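#onboarding

Welcome to the new folks! Below is a worked example of what a typical request in this channel looks like: someone posts a single protein sequence, and someone else replies with the predicted structure as tokens. Don't worry about understanding the tokens yet, we'll cover that in week two.

Example request:
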Amino acid sequence: MKKPLTVIFAILIVVVAWYVLRDDSVPAPVTDSDNLNALLTGAPINSIDLTASIPDTVFIPAENVFSPEIEAAEMLDSFSSTQAILFGDYIIVMEFLTNNVVAYNLDGDFVKRFQNEKISQAASVTANSDSLYIYDYGNKVIHSYNTDLINQRSFPFSAPYYTQGSIKINDTHLAYQREDASGFRIGENGSDQLLVVSQIEQPEKPLAELFPRIVPSGKQPGGFNNLMFSINNRSDIVSAYPALPYLFVYRNFKQHRNIVLSSTASNEVDNPSLAPFDPVMGEAVRINNLMDRLYLTENGDILIFSFGQLHHLRLGRNGNYEHGKSYVFMRGDNGHSINSISSIDESQSQPGRFYIISSELLYIIDLP
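Example response:
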């Protein structure tokens, strides 16, 4: 009787070992950018078809939709983009490149507007477990607040780029997109790296410089150098050029896994070649993004919002990524769908609950 059990146990060990150690990587694509080719070959690649399954529809109850402009009429200019993050018991809402940064409680009730620090052009809001940070691009200053929303300190910091979400923070590290990280811009040090990581207490001293410029400075199509990234509390980082179907995962600030995405929608986007050329009369070449937002969860899973769908990429025990679920969001009050978002953040106390900004409205979404 012991022999059959021993055989079964041995088979189970082999199956588990195969699952954990199997290599699902595929050959790297070849592009017109040498820097991108080097990045694509820098780690094992997982290939994911985002249209492999029919998306689930998530209905958002009317009570989970609210507009911050009810309490602050000057908020949310229709020509501005908006960011929302969670910080303890508060929802922090920022209107990009204005002085409008407002706190609400988790029921959507107005708490305060951040006015005392004379914010000029708020570009990013980010938070860890005990501090909220507002980056004022206009004054080149970062304002820090405690869990009671009281200003702790303000310090000069001119390195980050002005795009929304150019700074992300966790309990130990600060990651930011360089000032010279887009288009024609070029930094004084001539660095080709777009993403910088430093310790919170020493933001001016880089620990790591990641993610290369893929079109040379001063060349077109410079828009391919735009950057999207997310960091979790383990200091894992996922980054992307939003106009290209690739994700790059860093662990311990080293390239760990690459993901090549495919979908019928992205395949139809008519973006130019990556081959660089001199600009004509200083005009920029239009680049269409394939993804709106990117979010890295605490367990290493990745969420991508692309062409009106939220895709959940699951991290397996073997380090490979697989396509989990895809979702489309529909408002329960009027039946309208959400086709684009400007920010996404997850509740740490209620995993699976997300706070999403779209068309200047805040949605509370519970994923199944």
